[in-house]
Each structure stands twice: as C-alpha cells, then as structure tokens.
Amino acid sequence: MLWSLASGVTVWSAYEVFYLWALANGVVPSFDFSDHLFVFLVWLLKLPVLTSSHFYLVHRLLNWPPLYRRVHRLHHRNIQIGPWSGMSMHPVQHIIYISSVLVHFVLTSHPTILLVHLYSRYMGPAFSHAGFEKLLVKNDAIVDAANFHHRLHHRFFECNYGTVDAPWDRRFGSTHDGSDADTARVREQRRRMYRGHPPA
Fold first, then answer.
1. E-state strands within 21-167
2. What's the half-sphere exposure (Cβ side, CA atoms, 13 Å) at 148?
3. So where are the chain's domains?
4. Rounded to an integer, what distance in angstroms lies between the CA atom of residue 129 and that of residue 55?
5. What is the tens place of the pLDDT at every residue in 14-72?
6. Predicted confidence (pLDDT) per residue in 123-159, tens digit
7. Positive or negative torsion for Cα 31, 33, 39, 44
C-alpha cells in the first residue's frame, strides 16, 4: 500500500496538476465539450488502444535488465499478486507508467478525458492483479480482468508484457497462454537471455 499511495498518488497528482495548470494558462490545446461531442467520443473509443499500446511498450522497457534491477524489481516482489500490488511501483516506474497522459499535452483533448485516462491507468492494475479473471453480472462477463494473463508475467517475467486484449504480445512472440509448451519456451528464452544470470 505504501508505494501505491505515497508514490503512485503523488505522481498521478503531479501529472494532473501540471495538465490543469497548463490548461488554465493556455499552454495545452483543449476543446469545448458542447461543440465537439464527436471528438470527445472518438477520444473515449481510442483511449483503450492508446493505453494498451503504451503499456506494452513501457512494460517491455521496464523488463530490460538495467531498468528491471533498479526500478521494476520492486513491482515484481509481488509473486502472488493482489489489488494493492498493481500500483506497488518504484517512483520512476510510476512516472513512466502514467506518462501516456502526456499525449494530452500535444493533442487537443478535454480535462474529462484526462481524468478518465488517469483513472484507467491507476485503477486498471487493481483489476489485473485482483485475483479474479472476469467480472460477471448474471453470468455475463462484463469486464475481463486478465488476471491469469498478468499472473503468468509475474511468474515467468519474460512474457505477457501487454494487456490480454492488445495484439502486441502475440505479434512479437511474447505471449504465454499457460500451456506446458509455452512455459518451456519462455524458460528457454529466459535462460538464453540471461545466460544463467537472471536479474532476480
């Protein structure tokens, strides 16, 4: 909880305050909701694509051995993951992980979109680390928490860098479906990558 609250909330707040200050001073572009409802809806539809792509890229970067040893290892101390472990990160990792909101400093956006973006970045890891696979309502899956997908990453490290709904792990050969064949492949890849000296 300490890292989630002390570091995570501080970094989130810094991004939010910086954006709102820049917006109030005319530094960042914005649009009026009532005049551009279509743009607002496009932002809402494109946000999951943006955030899942950004997550894959930065998560892959954070698993690079020099960054892993100095930064990402703190998050991976949580082998048996739970909701609080989702945002249990080094401050540098929080800065990198939440940095997808910097797109709002470049592209015309709206403060509500920024808040939705921040909430998804901060609350999303609670779902993917919570210990359940799907949120069911009357036996219908409403939310895919992807817990198993991400739990495999915490178990084997060199796989499942992205979200379950994004194509990047499949595209770049880093997916692990839980099968024995994928386990053997990931272990062999890890052995070759670290030549017997994993970053632990």
1. 134-137, 140-144
2. 7
3. 2-194
4. 15
5. 999 999 999 999 999 999 988 899 999 999 999 999 999 999 999 999 998 899 999 99
6. 888 777 776 666 667 877 766 655 777 788 888 888 8
7. positive
Structure tokens at 20: 């709102």
Q: Which amino acid is at 191?
A: R
Cα(148)–Cα(80) distance, rounded to whole angstroms? 11
The identity of residue 111, as a single letter, is: P
How far is residue 6's CA from residue 89's CA, in Å, rounded to a whole number? 10
Place of tokens 């939010």: 16
Task: Quote the CA–CA distance of 127 and 158 in Å, as a whole number.
Answer: 21
Output the pTM of the full model.
0.85
